[in-house]
């Protein structure tokens, strides 16, 4: 799995909207705060709108607003919706499995499955609220990033 600029920029836009949850933010302001061109943001925000993450308002005071709460926006879902499967290889994908002629007895498939599971574990347990509240941390001695639950 590789997150492209599309996935990164979409998450940046969602973060800006999440910081101002409940307010309509102009595409120019989102562009200024994310350093993503208005033209590219138009495409990304249209896709995020179709996926139900944001809605738009037309007019002089128009712009975009989150359609869901920051707690409801799961980063794993956003990445899958925009980028496709989390698995680094098709043979290890749970959602877009692609068979391989060498799969039977393959010694690499367990590695790819572990990578997929680790990525999914972190992304599926992370919400936009977790990112906004800086609730990610490295578990010392475990070398695994996890989401801290709010106290």
TrEMBL record:
Keywords: DNA-binding. SUPFAM superfamilies: Winged helix' DNA-binding domain. One of its GO terms (cellular component) is cytosol. Pfam families: Rrf2. One of its GO terms (molecular function) is DNA-binding transcription factor activity. It comes from the Bacteria. PROSITE patterns: HTH_RRF2_1 (PS01332), HTH_RRF2_2 (PS51197). Signal peptide: none annotated. This is BadM/Rrf2 family transcriptional regulator. It comes from Mesobacillus campisalis.
């Amino acid at each position: 799995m590789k997150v492209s600029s599309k996935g990164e920029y979409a998450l940046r836009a969602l973060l800006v909207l999440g910081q101002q949850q409940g307010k309509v933010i102009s595409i120019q302001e989102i562009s200024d705060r994310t350093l993503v061109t208005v033209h590219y943001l138009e495409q990304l925000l249209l896709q995020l709108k179709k996926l139900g993450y944001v809605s738009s308002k037309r007019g002089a005071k128009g712009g975009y607003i989150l359609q869901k709460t920051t707690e409801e926006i799961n980063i794993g879902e956003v990445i899958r919706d925009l980028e496709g499967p989390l698995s680094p290889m098709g043979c290890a994908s749970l959602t877009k499995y692609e068979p391989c002629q060498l799969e039977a007895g393959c010694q690499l498939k367990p590695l790819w499955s572990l990578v997929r599971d680790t990525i999914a574990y972190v992304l599926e347990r992370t919400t936009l609220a977790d990112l906004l509240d800086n609730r990610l941390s490295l578990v010392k001695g475990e070398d695994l990033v996890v989401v801290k639950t709010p106290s």
